Amino acid sequence: MDLLTGIGLEQLRMWIWILVIGFAVAAGLWRRHQLVAVALASVLLFAAASAGAGIYILKRPGDPRWTMGEPPVNAPDLSGIPVVGKQLAPVESALESIAGGVNSFWEFNQALPVALDFFERSGWALLAAIPLIIAMMIKTFRAASLRRQELKNLSGAVAQLQSELAAIKGNLSEQGTAAEAPEQGSQRENAGTRRSRRGE
Questions:
Q1: Burial level of 49, CB count in 10 A (0-12/13-18/19+)?
Q2: Residue 101: C-alpha distances to residues 68, 72, 104 (Å)
Q3: Which residues, 6 or more positions from 72, have their beta carbon under 8 angstroms from its beta carbon?
Q4: pLDDT tens, 39-69?
């Protein structure tokens, strides 16, 4: 079923704009921090919709929406001629085939400028997308650089924490060794005192 049958050319152009604007507003509200990506997607949508409209027109030559006037060639009615009408039937069939080909070419020529108008709009949209693509690439490169810098800073912070933790462990082990030395000395003194008392 052809959903665009009842839509004229001006309405078709208007609906393309409505579709793109509606998409841009909805996507902009959803992705407020990615407006460049939203603008790029909207421009590409406009290009795709315009190209699709051009293809739609080329596939339907002879449509009264973009065909002006009547077909230029009509095959004569030779079969209605008295006496020789039946003998001229093959000639009439050939003339009808030729007239049909000429009329089809004329209908295609009628539809071609209208389709080219939509293709031109699509081309301009693709040209407008180039700076947006460059802006997206720059933004992506900057974001990647910031992430690499953050990762580098995080790695440095982790290394610093590891060194501080190693220093704290070393201090604790030194303090433990220093605390054990007096205890061992006092234990030796107590042992010597006990021995001297036993000797007395």
A1: buried
A2: 18, 11, 5
A3: 102, 103, 106
A4: 999 999 999 999 999 999 998 888 888 887 7
